[in-house]
Design a protein that fits this description.
Elements (H helix, E strand, L loop, with lengths): L1 E8 L5 H6 L4 H14 L6 E6 L3 E8 L1 H19 L3 H5 L3 E4 L1 H12 L10 H16 L4 H20 L9 H12 L7 E5 L3 H11 L5 E6 L2 H10 L3 E4 L3 H4 L5 E4 L10 H10 L5 E5 L16 E5 H7 L4 H30 L1 H27 L4 H26 L2 H15 L13
Parallel strand pairs: 5-6, 5-8, 6-7, 8-9, 9-10
Antiparallel strand pairs: 1-3, 1-4, 2-3
């Protein structure tokens, strides 16, 4: 089997395009089954990873099929996002075999993220594996790839300081808000959503002790649970348009496929606020806040891509940590490709075992016939050993005799390596 990874991320595609290819967790399994149906003849292994920064398909198939599967995979993904295959090709990357494994290991370790060493990606990859398993598209090869990527990621995070010196998206959001407002203790903050990213950002803002914190979520119970951690209040998404004006800073990150905060609601909020500024951060892909909102006066709207520009790390320490992480990844890639190569020889090993078993059966059958005719045991054993030896050596000796020149020299080396033992036989061992 061979592996390829195909996808788009924050380095190859703008946020609006990435939003077209964002899959909610409950969409992953049906999407994988649809992809498998599209490639029915090939029946590849497949897993789909979808986060706010990337959408990637990992595919394992027969080496002869891999190249042929790339184009239909792009076409299928393009259909999911409602764009042409040609348009998508300009924003995708395709990585094969070792490069695909290296990419998976780097993604799991947080080396390919906007935020170096981000912890969320590992959980997202594990969910992608669970959904692929549920869809019936996770085979032995991809299972090995992902389990090894998780192991490598664990080594990277425990053996290096890869995440210790990075400024997270959450910290970047707080920094931007601090530039707009003199004192964050004087502002009211609204978080839309209740997932891991919102929890992280809310934790950073809460550390600055804002005047109030509110959580707006589709499920009020979940919103109340998160709000309780910060002594905040929970509100319903349906009430958002009427309450938007109460908040100075709004940070949103949901899995909604359509914008939650529209132009009209923000315009009304600004009017009620008498045009006091509103700081807004949209961390969602697809967007939670209509892009047109950025054109309004007194609105400071930042996207996930805007915040990535602010994410910097400490130079020398970062480079040292990255170098350590890459060394761990290199070892992981080497181990995985060695396993793949071993898997490639399995059919040959099985065929050799079948052939050897056929030879053994034939010689045993011949020996039984000889015994039935009254041949003595020594003659039968001699014939049995001679027959097996001849069958074992016939192919190699025939190839050796048929070759000439340089080919014969190479064949002689191969035959010697396979059949001759370098250490002399000890006669004393015969009695053991």
């Amino acid at each position: 089997m061979s592996v390829f990874a195909l996808g788009l991320n924050h380095t190859t595609a703008p946020v609006d395009l990435r939003g077209r290819f964002a899959f909610a967790p409950e969409q992953l399994s049906p999407a994988l089954r649809g992809f498998r149906d599209r490639l029915m003849r090939a029946l590849p292994e497949a897993a789909l990873l979808s986060t706010c920064n990337r959408t990637e398909l990992y595919v394992a198939a027969d080496p002869l099929q891999v190249r042929e599967l790339v184009s239909p995979t792009i076409d299928w993904l393009a259909t999911q996002g409602g764009v042409s295959g040609e348009q998508l090709r300009h924003h995708t990357y395709v990585l094969e075999h070792r490069d695909a494994a290296r990419h998976a290991f780097r993604v799991a370790s947080g080396l390919d993220s906007m935020v170096l060493g981000e912890p969320q990606i590992l959980g997202q990859m594990k969910q992608a594996v669970r959904e692929a398993d549920h869809a019936g598209t996770l085979g032995t090869t991809l299972h090995q790839l992902f389990q090894r990527s998780f192991s490598v990621a664990k080594d990277v995070r425990t053996s290096t300081e890869i995440g210790s010196h990075s400024i997270s998206m959450a910290a970047a959001a707080v920094r931007l808000a601090s530039q707009l407002f003199e004192d964050l203790r004087d502002i009211h903050v609204l978080f839309v959503g209740a997932g891991e990213m919102i929890e992280l950002v809310a934790t950073h803002f809460a550390a600055r002790a804002p005047k109030s914190i509110a959580i707006a979520n589709r499920t009020l119970e979940r919103g109340e649970k998160l709000a309780g951690r910060f002594s905040g209040q929970a509100i319903r998404l349906a009430d958002l348009p009427q309450r938007l004006h109460e908040f100075d800073a709004i940070i949103s990150c949901t899995a909604s496929t359509l914008p939650i905060i529209g132009m009209g609601a923000v315009r009304s909020a600004l009017k009620a606020r008498k045009h006091r500024p509103i700081f807004m951060v949209d961390l969602a892909v697809p967007r939670d806040i209509e892009p047109e909102v950025a054109a309004l006066s007194d609105v400071y709207l930042y996207t996930v891509d805007d915040l990535s520009v602010l994410v910097q790390t400490a130079g020398e320490k970062r480079q040292a940590a990255v170098a350590q992480a890459e060394a761990i990844i290199d070892a992981g890639v080497q181990s995985f490709t060695h396993w793949l190569d071993q898997r490639a020889s399995v059919p040959l090993i099985q065929a050799l075992n079948r052939q050897a078993d056929d030879w053994r059966s034939a010689e045993i059958a011949r020996a039984h016939k000889m015994l039935a005719k009254g041949a003595d045991i020594d003659s039968v054993l001699e014939a049995l050993s001679r027959g097996l030896t001849q069958k074992l050596l016939h192919g190699a000796l025939a190839e050796l005799r048929a070759s000439d020149g340089e080919q014969r020299a190479q064949m002689a080396q191969t035959v010697s390596r396979l059949f001759l033992r370098q250490t002399p036989r000890n006669p004393a061992d015969d009695g053991r």
